[in-house]
Every structure is written in structure tokens, then in C-alpha cells.
Design goal:
359 residues, 14 helices, 14 strands, alpha/beta, 7-stranded parallel β-sheet, globular, 7-stranded mixed β-sheet
């Protein structure tokens, strides 16, 4: 059974409650969950086999106060990166047994507080790495070969010459140096794509990955070296207090004037004001962004005045196959948590050790 809830001031729960027969179901003792956005129907059907659901129907996410209200009294929530799961929400949700995030990153979830309360937090690593790397490499190529800029030129009706040998010159991708910051699953997939273009691959990561270096032709370097030597710098790190504005003025000035920055991680990993200045004044050649700070990007944001930046609206995992797999994994995590089983993908597995120790 699914309930679509408009907002806290709309009609009563009973008036918004329905099942496939169109009848209001009887109250039962099945666990209750709140799904903060409409997701693939197959995933909702899976959750519906074990729980009563409220599904937020709007395109916009529920406001924080509504999210807290709808989460109170629930046993599980299925969230995404636009939902803030903080102490206030956890305080309002004393029955909460599981948080299942439809994403890899968890910067919107207070994982430490959830762990302290013994609540497992699920996420969806693995199933979106290839799709996200595809988009990151597409942005890299588009920025290098000026695809976005030239496409806008065509649409403005400015294509008046059939061909000119000195127009639309860009940067070659093949045989260049790709610097990857963050060698997780997406970073590794980015390296594989770079190797397909005969690129030299440098990487910098919190944890060195020597087991991958020989297999994939990777060279570990410190961040200043990576920035100075790379023709393309691609960011694949989680957003934490340490990585907020990880790439700022100092880092951008270290890069080559012919270099291109790609961000497929989180918008705040890059200082947007410093990036605008770098692109405007030619510290670097161009940028390709799948994420921005903020999101959505306001129409008057200065980055949108520049031709040498390609901006996509956070579509890294937005393929039918990948989003379908994400939804199903998030649903399985949610169901497992409701049933007291270990999550298939758990960001804080120490909660299980805590439970064992308390028994």
C-alpha cells in the first residue's frame, strides 16, 4: 500500500490513503516508511511487500519541517541527497530502524549520530560508478573540444562558414595526462576510460591503492604535483569538512593554463568564486561540471556567463539502468533494515558490532 502525501496542512491521512483497489486499507501493525521522492515502481513494489509507505509526490523535496513530521512515527526512511537527516530529524523519529539513501554520498546524513543511536545507514555504491564516469568523461571531452560552446553557436544561427581551419580549435584528449583526485570506484572507472584514450594517469587519494597501480597503469602523486602536471583534473571525492573548497584559488593557480577541471563529485568541493575567476582570467582553459554550488544553479550565477564551462544538472547516475539499480538497492537496504537483517550496502557497519556487544 502506498500513500501519497502532499503536505502537512493538506487533507487527512485517510483522505490521501489508497491501495490498488481504491479503498482505504485497515490499520495494521506493519512497519511504516517514508519515501521522500517518487522512485522506480519496481522498488516501491518491493518495499510495499513488507511496509506501509508514504511517498512524497512533488518534484521539489519536502521542506525540512515536513520531512521531520513525515519521518516521525516511521520505522524507515528512503532519502536522497536533497534531504537533511540531522539530529533534529532523528530526535523526532524515535522508532527509526533504518535510513536508506538513494546515492553513494552521505554528506546530507549525520552518519555519526545515526551510528550512536544504532541506526544502520544504507547507500548505493557500485551500481552507478560506470554511468557517473561516463558523464564525467563526456564533460571532459565536451570542454576540451568546445562541444557545448559550438553547439550554442549553431543554435544562435551564427554558423555562416562551412569550414575554417582556425575556428573552434580545442584541446586534444588522447595522449594527455589525466589527474584523478579520489580513487574510489568512480575514480577507477574514470582511469579506465582515460587508458582507452592512451592517457597517462596520475592519482591522489586519501588512501594509496598500490594494488591498482600496476594493473591499471596508475601513478600516485601528491596533490600539488597532480595539479601541476595534469592536462585534465577530475574530482571524485566525497564532500566532508576536509574536502569543502578542496579546490580553491591556490589549487587552481597550480594548474596549467591549458588544463581542464572536471567535477563529478559534489559542488562545494570546488570554490565556485575562485573557479569563476580562474576561467574568466585564464588561469585554466575550461571546466566541465556535473555538480555546482548551490544546486540548482541560479540563472544569474556568474558561471553561466562564461563560454568555457560546460554545466550539467547533476545527471551522473541518470541512466535508466543505473537509476533502476540504485532504486532496487536502496529498496533492498530499506527492507533488510526493517526486518532486522544486515544491509546489503551499509555505510556504518559498526552498528552491528555495537548490537553484538550489547547482547
Amino acid at each position: 500500500m502506498i500513500r501519497f502525501i502532499k503536505d502537512s496542512k493538506s487533507k487527512s491521512d485517510a483522505e490521501h490513503t489508497f491501495n490498488r483497489t481504491g479503498k482505504v486499507p485497515e490499520v495494521n501493525d506493519r512497519p511504516r516508511v517514508f519515501v521522500t521522492r517518487q522512485i522506480m515502481q519496481e522498488a516501491l513494489d518491493l518495499v510495499g511487500t513488507v511496509a506501509e509507505m508514504e511517498v512524497w509526490p512533488d518534484e521539489e523535496p519536502p521542506a525540512p519541517e515536513i520531512l521531520r513530521e513525515r519521518s516521525s512515527g516511521t520505522d524507515g526512511i528512503l532519502t536522497n541527497i536533497m534531504d537533511r537527516v540531522d539530529v533534529a530529524l532523528l530526535d523526532a523519529s524515535p522508532r527509526l530502524k533504518v535510513i536508506s539513501q538513494l546515492a553513494v554520498g552521505l554528506d546530507n546524513v549525520d552518519v555519526a549520530e545515526a551510528t550512536r543511536r544504532g541506526i544502520p545507514v544504507g547507500n548505493t555504491p557500485g551500481v552507478l560508478a560506470k554511468a557517473t564516469a561516463d558523464v564525467a568523461f563526456a564533460l571532459l571531452m565536451s570542454a576540451a573540444r568546445r562541444i557545448g560552446e559550438s553547439e550554442r553557436w549553431v543554435r544562435r544561427g551564427e554558423w555562416t562558414l562551412a569550414f575554417h581551419p582556425l575556428r573552434w580549435l580545442g584541446i586534444d584528449v588522447h595522449d594527455k595526462t589525466l589527474g584523478i583526485v579520489g580513487m574510489g570506484q568512480i575514480g577507477l572507472e574514470m582511469a579506465r576510460r582515460g587508458r582507452g584514450f592512451d592517457m597517462r594517469i596520475l592519482y591522489h587519494s586519501r588512501t594509496r591503492r598500490p594494488e591498482l597501480e600496476a594493473e591499471h597503469g596508475l601513478t600516485y602523486v601528491d596533490l600539488p604535483t597532480l595539479l601541476a602536471e595534469s592536462d585534465f583534473v577530475s574530482l571524485h571525492v566525497p564532500l566532508t569538512e576536509e574536502t569543502r573548497h578542496y579546490i580553491g584559488e591556490k589549487e587552481l593557480r597550480r594548474m596549467k593554463p591549458t588544463a581542464i577541471l572536471v567535477n563529478a563529485a559534489r559542488g562545494p568541493v570546488v570554490d565556485s568564486r575562485a573557479l569563476y575567476t580562474a576561467l574568466k582570467e585564464g588561469w585554466i582553459y575550461a571546466a566541465g561540471l556535473d555538480v555546482t554550488d548551490p544546486e540548482p544553479l541560479p540563472i544569474d550565477d556568474p558561471l553561466l556567463t562564461l563560454e568555457n564551462v560546460v554545466i550539467a544538472p547533476h545527471v551522473g547516475s541518470a541512466s535508466l539502468d543505473s537509476r533502476g539499480a540504485m532504486c532496487m538497492l536502496a529498496a533492498r537496504n530499506l527492507v533488510a533494515g526493517l526486518q532486522g537483517r544486515e544491509l546489503e550496502r551499509c555505510a556504518n557497519p559498526e552498528v552491528y558490532q555495537m548490537r553484538d556487544n550489547s547482547n
